[in-house]
Specification:
2 copies of one chain form a homodimer.
Chain A: E1 4-9, H1 17-32, E2 36-41, H2 47-58, H3 64-88, E3 93-96, E4 103-105, E5 114-117, H4 120-127, E6 131-135, E7 138-141, E8 146-148, H5 153-165, E9 169-174, E10 195-197, H6 198-206, H7 214-223, E11 227-231, E12 239-242, H8 246-249, E13 255-259, E14 262-271, H9 276-286, E15 291-296, E16 303-311, H10 315-329, E17 334-337, E18 340-346, H11 356-366, E19 371-377, E20 380-386, H12 390-400
Parallel strand pairs in A: 1-2, 1-9, 2-6, 3-6, 4-7, 9-11, 10-12
Antiparallel strand pairs in A: 4-5, 7-8, 11-12, 13-18, 14-16, 14-17, 15-16, 18-20, 19-20
Chain lengths: 407, 407
Amino acid sequence: MGNLIVQKYGGSSVANPERIKNVAKRVVRYKKRGYNVVVVVSALGDTTDELIELASKVTDDPSEREMDMLISTGEQISCALLAMAIDKLKVPAISFTGAQVGIITDNSHTKARILNISAERIKEELKNGKVVVVAGFQGISVAKEITTLGRGGSDLTAVALAKALGAKICEIYTDVDGVYTADPRIVKDAKKLSRVSYDEMLELASLGAKVMQARSVEYGKRYDIPIHVRSSFSNVEGTIISKEVKSMERIDVSGLALQKDEAKVTICDVPDKPGIAAIIFKELAVNNIVIDMIVQNVSRTGTTDISFTVLKEDLAKTIKVAKKVAREVGAGEVIKDENIAKVSIVGIGMRSHSGIAARMFRALASKKINIEMISTSEIKISCVIEKRHAETALRTLHDEFGLKRVK
Amino acid sequence: MGNLIVQKYGGSSVANPERIKNVAKRVVRYKKRGYNVVVVVSALGDTTDELIELASKVTDDPSEREMDMLISTGEQISCALLAMAIDKLKVPAISFTGAQVGIITDNSHTKARILNISAERIKEELKNGKVVVVAGFQGISVAKEITTLGRGGSDLTAVALAKALGAKICEIYTDVDGVYTADPRIVKDAKKLSRVSYDEMLELASLGAKVMQARSVEYGKRYDIPIHVRSSFSNVEGTIISKEVKSMERIDVSGLALQKDEAKVTICDVPDKPGIAAIIFKELAVNNIVIDMIVQNVSRTGTTDISFTVLKEDLAKTIKVAKKVAREVGAGEVIKDENIAKVSIVGIGMRSHSGIAARMFRALASKKINIEMISTSEIKISCVIEKRHAETALRTLHDEFGLKRVK
């Protein structure tokens, strides 16, 4: 199918009839320019939350299978309405549920994985000259049950359809106009990135840049589907997430991220013997506690301190588990620190540029900001610092790596 | 499947989480008494109207295919919620859309006809000991599209499932507790009928008794499925609609109905020649005007007056069409009368009892009520009278035929 584009519109883009009509106009513009258009929609505004709220009034323990049955209606409503709105503009359109277009998933209700997409009915209707509107976030399991794909599921529907249909690009319309070098609410002169690599976006997403969920970016990376993140409220170009191109490598650092939702836990005086760390982190894992950074210093006295960070919402549970396991392995006390922030720099240029870490540490030191923990990946460096320094650190690093918008 | 019961709950019975929980309790009671229970639900309260309202804000001309996509979500929401509520009471339950249980319809969107029901998944889940909750009002067309069954569609789903599954009875839970001899708001001592025949119910339904849509009663009649109409807010027995039993024939008149939504139109001085009436009523039909009663008197002067009744909402259009056709056939003026009411008596006993009509006319005459038009069927007699006499006529006939509740 030549000249095919997949567009996804998030909940805020279709929050009410007026906005749905605006989306319809945009879709029709693309159609009239000669594109074949497949549109994926999320549920209207807060519909999903309202449905979850309804369920909570009926039971405190809904089965996941019934939750999927319930919340999948949100996207079915929005795709029917958008098809009507497009039709009203004299461009024929047809809506489909995930099941109808053959988005086959596994049986993991509320967080299903896409196994296969047949997309036969989509191809047929595109051939008929129609705009095809697909309910995002949902599929049908091999057991013929309605499933949903979990957080960011509609993005995933869009990227997966782009792959299945051989689309040139997948456009993700949202309420921000792209990916920025840093949170513009904190760093006033943050710059919109015109391009960013899948890997950088994955690091930024895992660091809490809420533009896109990591799994959709991973899917795009695996099948090399360029993703254009842009605003549904304007016509300006957004950010294209794609595989690395030469120009990207010339830049040291592409973006910065700041996280303040983690806390630090330290287990003191852990016996420095093989297998002890494994015992500790296995116990945390079986209690479903997700660990982010882990730091263990060299031992000098036969014991060591092990520090790690967890989401604040898991802190109480973490302390309980940590105290129990500390007793079991003969470690000392367990200390928590909620006044931390994590500041990170991300860039594929780090691979070829040396000295990036040193520049980061020096810049923080110049502002008398102490670094409590450090963790690095191939294209990312994260530092845990005192929370009160968070914004200063972000601005300082933004300047240091020359990310300022040129006025 | 032995001991199977199909229960249908209307929109007011599942209007909010509290009521859904009450329905769940009732279902569980039946299950614990040893019944296999299949439940059919309508959309929550006003959901369907709200969805139609949403569509109207997006387009003034929605395709029927997309309307079905949209409004079928209402029942999907309610069936998932009810399954959760039943599950919460420790009785396993599972919800299904019409498509999932194989309710196959024709392609007439928004008013589809059921062609076939496979119900395989229902049988399977009943064998697993589950309560099966089915979204009413919907099916899947032979073209694999979501369809809806039109007004009263959820009742039809219930009766059709009762047939497909070989259920003993189909219970229709609603906000009234049965079928009455007359509208209890007008006739204070109206009596609830414990039994009424399909044919009587069909006449009463067509006369505006809003308890059940005629098509569900017709379906029940065709396959001899007893239908128990009863209240979801109490445990009292309602009215059983079934085939005729001997006891019914002993009663002259089962029920009364009053309609005030019609108007009378008279075309004066119509040439009394063969084919003229056909021309008039064909012209009305092609303009989609539904005619109820027609009266034509014998001609004395070579011309005759033809009177008929139509719904008031069609009156303006009717007058326009009637005037045009009157000119064409050389008839005289067209007169309208909106101040009419139609009072009807219904009963299969009429077949074997003579003199029922005479008793009706005498009773009306005793109150000085003039009869303007008369129409009869095998088990019904309707009289058009002046609207101001409507309530008096209803009460008078209720007394005449001994329908009073025994105190």
